[in-house]
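Fold these two proteins, one after the other.
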Amino acid sequence: MKLDPTQRRILALLQKDSTLSTQALADKVGMSPSPCWRRVKEMEEAGIIRGYVALADRQKLGLGTCVWVRVKLKKHSTEVLDRFEQVVKGYDEVVECYELLGETDCLLKLYLPNLEAFSVFMHNFLLKIPEVDVTHSSVALREIKNETALPL
């Protein structure tokens, strides 16, 4: 689905504040509520809008440590990757996981309370996965930019 300029404006506004009422959203884009609601529903049905969430402040929740872990797997097969994916999906500390091209097979982003929790995670989880060969970790010193809104 290709978005027209009005849909882009609606989506940009919803990415910043998904709690906007249909009336408030319509007012901001200069249209009446019914057609505005239909545009939102079209984007939902097309899967462009996947859902609505509350963004939590990880610092206030005690998750002040952000760690990126690059993982190299022992073998490259569908079975190995499928098993690794299933195990990783079971851990809440892993907030993002990507399969990559190049020397690193997967990249994990973790949010944890502190470095001790990261050590526990590595020793009790990641390093016990038989498919994992080598890991390299980077601890974020500070967050410079973290946006949830996609560029439109």
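Now the second one:
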Amino acid sequence: MKNIYLLFILTLLCACRHQPGNKSGDLIELFVDDQYEVKNLSELVESIRVIPLETTDQSLIGSIADLGYDDGNIFVLDGYNQLVSQFDENGQFIRKLVQKGNGPDDIQHPQMFSIDKLHNEVWLSNNTNFMRFDYHGNYLGKRDYQIGFTDWYVDEDYDIYFYTGKNDNAHNEDGFMTGDLTLLTTNDQKKTWFKSDIIGYYKPNMTKVSFGSSHPFSPQPDGSVTFSYTFNDTIYCIKNKQIYPKYCVHLTGNSLPSEKLDNMPGEEIDKYIQEHPSLQWNMNSVFETPAYLLFGYGIGFHAWAWVLYEKATKKMTNVQIKDDLFGSTFLPIKDSSGDSFWAAMMVENMELNPKLTEFIGKEKYERLKMLSPEDNPVILEFTFKEKF
């Protein structure tokens, strides 16, 4: 294992940007150099559970655009029709939460979904409102919004944090242009954080290159939320309507300062990355569990590396994961629960290695081999080893 520098500090004096200024606890600095290792997935994981999703006419899924797990329920977003299907923890189909159509109980413009694990609800975005369901499929009503966003999180008071990703929300005609994080309360009050100079740069009908943030919200058992946004080197904590920096990540190799990236139009970023193929950039896909902090970063446009910080040992691993078990080119982690991580994989993309039997046994391995490309995707639940 390649250990990387790790330093604890007791103040907020570091190179990262801390726009909110709210302090709580100690800020942890993580220094990531460019000497990552290539590790096999089989070397990194402690356990793997493979869950084939039941394939029926009612449950058929073209591809999985997103997934979430909570309390024995697996929710998946079909990348083709944007509808959400619910399965139990063994992969048995339960229901589609709603059908697409123009009826009073249908969804007209499905886009994304989010699990509200605090209230055991699923929220589906529907152009200008959310449709809410409980885990039993009961419809709970709608919540209107007028804001452009790419993800959201519902807190204990049903206030909504939108990840707006530098969208210009001037269409609200209230003079309110959002930053990367916008709070919308139940009485429609707004507050925004992390507004960059790029806000307002793009004009209507102007073609633009956009770089999103994967998994910006990572809920924690204590009710707080770990939050990150594109081109930022700080990972934040949201709790009790307050935001404070929690981790400061330094990509210390051949990297471009996050503040410069944050204020560059997408076309300029695209050109710069093309000209610097070994650049470390765009910390993304941030997951925090009681035991780990896991995040990825790009290496130019051609590679992706993961950083795993073990909280108990205060050790870090900088690694490219080679999937020697399922043969995927990229491990698509979509959610975390407890200390488990969840991913999805299409059957046609799997090249099973007999080494997988060490984790799931020969009988389950043989059943996996019998799946066909026409079958539904499989869900992976896995845990990392305490020490690599």
